[in-house]
Each structure stands twice: as C-alpha cells, then as structure tokens.
Amino acid sequence: RTVYVNGDYLPEHEARISVFDRGFLMADGVYEVTSVLDGKLIDFAGHCTRLARSLTELEMTNPHSDDEWLAIHRALVAQNGIADGMVYLQVTRGNPGDRDFAYPAADLPPTVVLFTQAKPGLADSPAAKTGWKVISVPDVRWGRRDIKTVQLLYPSMAKMAAKKAGVDDAWLVEDGFVTEGTSNNAYIVKGNKIITRALSHDILHGITRAAVLRFAVEAQMEVEERNFTIAEAQSADEAFITSASAFVMPVVEVDGTAIGNGTVGRVATRMREIYLDEMR
Ligand code: PDD
Predict the structure, then answer these.
(1) What is the domain extent for residue 180?
(2) Tell me, what's the ipTM?
(3) Could you tell me if the CB of 204 is within 6 A of ligand 1?
(4) Closest Cα to atom 17, ligand 1: which residue?
(5) For 93-142, how does the pLDDT look when each residue is reduced to its tens digit (9 = 90+)?
(6) Of 120, 140, 165, at which residue does a domain stop?
(7) Would you say the CB of residue 209 lies under 6 angstroms from ligand 1?
(8) What is the pLDDT of residues 198-231, one digit of tens each?
C-alpha cells in the first residue's frame, strides 16, 4: 500500500513518525474518514469543513487548502486502485522534540498522515439487510465530542464490550439519554418522524447525519432533534445509525429487546437507499 506522510507518497513500510509526536504521546490530533464508492469520494466537502473546524477548536493551523486535501485524497485512491473503501486522514500537532503538556509553538509543522483501506462491496453490506444489534454502555468520554480527535480508547472499549456480548455496536448513555454510537450517530423512528439528539459538544456532528436529515426533510419526513432514552428506543417503530463508513445502518435490537418486529425497518431502508443514490 502507498501511504501519505508529510508531503511524500511512500510504501507503508517506509513511513516514519517520531516517537515524540504529540499524536502518539497525547492523542493530540484530529482525523477524518471519507468513504470511496466506485472510485468517488463521498461527501468530501463536508469532511473538509469539519476537519477545518476540529483544527480551529484545538488551535492548530490547517496545513492544506480544501483543493490540496482533495488532490492528496485522489492521488492515494488512484495509486492504491481503490474502487470501494475509505481514505483515513490524520493531522497531529507534530513533534516538539520533548514531552510537555503545554502546546508547542504555533508554527511547529503538524504531522499529516493519510492512508486507504479497500472494502470491496462496501455499499452492499449484508448487515444492511439484517440490521445491527446494540447494547447500551455508560458514556464516560470527555466533554468535547464535537471535535474529531484521535483519542478513541473508550469507543474501542465499548466496541469490545459489544463484541463480547455478541452484538454489533454499543450506544453510549449519559444522564439517562443516548448520546451516539461508538463511531456513529443514533436515531429512532416513530411513525413518519425521525428522532435524533441535537448537535452540541456532547456528540460528533456527523457529516452523514447532516446529509440524511436533509434528505429526510426533502422526502417529507418529520425530523425532531431531541434526546431519547434506551426505553424509548426499545418501544420505537425503528432505529438506525449513520456514519461515513456504514452510511445508514438499521438497528433491530437494543439491550436484548427487539425494536418494532425485530426486522429492518421501512424508513431506515428508504433513507439508506436515498443516501446512497444521492451521494454516489
Ligand atoms: N466515525 N459519532 C462518532 C463518535 C463517530 O466516530 C462518527 C464517525 C460519527 C459519524 O460521523 P460521520 O457521519 O461524519 O462519519 C458519529 C468514523 C466513521 C470513524 O471513526 O471511523
């Protein structure tokens, strides 16, 4: 595989990052994941806008213009012959030469890494036909989940708890309400209404979320941005999640309780179709 590191396209075994990089020592960095379908980047502009915001929130300078980011993404997709898959992008605060809690000088060059992962048949995932089962776990992450940082230890632990429980993902719960999934935004459906938590510092502002809610309104669905509980999800007609890598994925069970009749719902299926049709 060819990867990108600080301006160079290299075979992955030749890529080098300092042991003093703040991304490595402090999880001091941000990332984006953009899906590729048929060689095309999905909703690239949205990911670029969020990247810029994450960097600003952490007082880091964006090392590239949107056009430069696009050129790097396209070059990697081409060099790795990616038809279906994803591009991962990470910007860390770089290597100040020593370990120190205080940020280094603002003009320290950031470390920029991109790589691709091939996922043949990404849009035809069989899971979309059967749906995900999820468990709930407490949300003990930090208070700025709107910044897409690389500190993903707790979401990884939650994903492992789900795996051990024999299900697909975990929904994180804070003060009695679902915040989001380990790496996706969470929704329930009641009749013609799609309900999802409002944007705040509590959740990541999903790029897929923004697109799906826009398409839902265009398709004459009602959208309500508010908190919901696990109990409300269990008694809802349907549930689903969205992310750049799973698109729209139906959820059919929460904490062992089937949602609706326990099969993939009509609204989730329709929103997945609309999303894929519009974005490809
Ligand atoms: N995860 N919430 C969290 C905590 C996430 O990590 C993600 C994305 C989302 C969905 O955002 P988007 O629609 O922009 O992908 C919500 C990516 C896919 C990941 O970490 O792999």
Answers:
(1) 127-279
(2) 0.99
(3) yes
(4) 183
(5) 999 999 999 999 989 999 999 999 999 999 999 999 999 999 999 999 99
(6) 120
(7) yes
(8) 999 999 999 999 999 999 999 999 999 999 999 9
